[in-house]
Amino acid sequence: MEEFLIANKEAIFVLAMFSLALKAIALWRAGKHGRLGWFIALLFVNTLGILELIYIFCIDKPSALNERQLNLKEAHLAVLRDYLKTHEQVTSQEIQKLIGVSAATTVRYLDELEKDGLLEQVGDTGRGVIYRKK
After folding, report:
1. Which CATH class is domain 64-133?
2. Tens of pLDDT along 11-50?
3. Residue 85: is it exposed, middle or buried by C-beta count within 10 angstroms (0-12/13-18/19+)?
């Protein structure tokens, strides 16, 4: 075994550096996205890069998609804020038609604007609900 290690020390070094680089990338991404369980597993489990590759390419894969979704959400919210400059109240159905999103997405957007203090919901549920500017 000792002979094998001595004969292949360059390859072992390259493998160790590759594993260390993968671990650093995976730990950074897990920390950035607040995935504490993955962070701890990646920190303490040594799998020669296998667990890190799984995390980077399978678990954290949709980051580009999430970025596009975030940009689209911000664009939609900007359209809503502009719309509210000329309208005192809106309904979920108006917003669905205006930006072309589902009813669930519309409600999430309106809830976010309500949390930001721009709107207040009048009514509990259903088609009778309107949102008024504050």
Report:
1. mainly alpha
2. 888 888 888 888 898 998 888 888 888 888 888 887 777 8
3. exposed
